[in-house]
């Protein structure tokens, strides 16, 4: 594990230094050590290498350890483990977890695995992961960047809801994204949607205050209602393909997050691939024009 360090004489000069990790081969030994250590801060976490087997009876005990050692912050490296999944709820509410590196044996990140980890700033997802479970990173407000590997096929609902993401690349390997995935990601300004996504689900980008533009790939055949509701800075949308009118959800006044009602079929000359723009703030009366 490495981290950038600033020069003591000139803070603009940085270098990357290796950080030593204290190794453990069991959850029990890690627990004994951690409880004996002094309190620290999120800026000075303990760097721990925990190498454990895929044992359902021991692995979830990590939640309890972090709960009772709530003033001891840890950056956890599991890369030497043989676990095949990050099990459901395993780190739920662990506010003292600052980072996690997963092993190449992990195929799934479980439901709400990291929900409420408010000091989680870094996560390394290996190429072995196929799916990311429901609400896995919900409420991770300090998590500003995540790299989703090309192995991932499915991203379930609410995975990054109310997280601190500023940008996200959804790889072409992903074929489905659950609804409300990026709900309330108020710092999210840069989104790349993979070219195998067929549907943008309901409330996917609801309340993404910083989102200014998005490209809808030609693979998308439907956009559900309220998908972009309350995105006041979203002034540019590019369609790489054509979506039929039936591919948009209800266009009643209750559903102003529906892109069809905002610009796509607003003008009889529209409805073809291209970039559509308007002026902020975006609202029910916005008039979208194809460039």
Outline the structure in words.
The protein is built from three helices and 20 strands. By secondary structure, it is mainly beta. The protein has a domain of 158 residues: Leucine-rich repeat, LRR (right-handed beta-alpha superhelix) (Alpha-Beta Horseshoe), CATH 3.80.10. The strands form six sheets. The protein has a five-stranded parallel sheet with strand order 3-4-5-7-9. The radius of gyration is 22 Å and the shape is elongated. The termini are far apart. The N terminus is likely disordered.
Would you spell out the secondary-structure blueprint of this structure?
Layout: E1 2-6, E2 14-18, E3 22-24, H1 27-35, E4 46-50, H2 61-68, E5 74-77, E6 85-86, E7 97-101, E8 108-109, E9 122-124, E10 131-132, E11 154-155, E12 167-169, E13 176-177, E14 190-192, E15 199-200, E16 213-216, E17 222-223, E18 236-239, H3 259-264, E19 274-277, E20 289-290
Parallel strand pairs: 3-4, 4-5, 5-7, 6-8, 7-9, 8-10, 10-11, 11-13, 12-14, 15-17, 16-18
Antiparallel strand pairs: 1-2, 18-19, 19-20
Helix pairs in contact: 1-2
In CATH terms, what is the architecture of one domain?
Alpha-Beta Horseshoe
Secondary-structure element series:
EEEHEHEEEEEEEEEEEEEEHEE
DSSP E strands, number: 20
User: What spatial form do the alpha-carbon principal axes imply?
Assistant: elongated
As a percent range, the share of strand residues is: 15-25%
Please give the order of strands in the largest beta sheet: 3-4-5-7-9
Biggest sheet statistics: 5 strands, parallel
Number of helices: 3
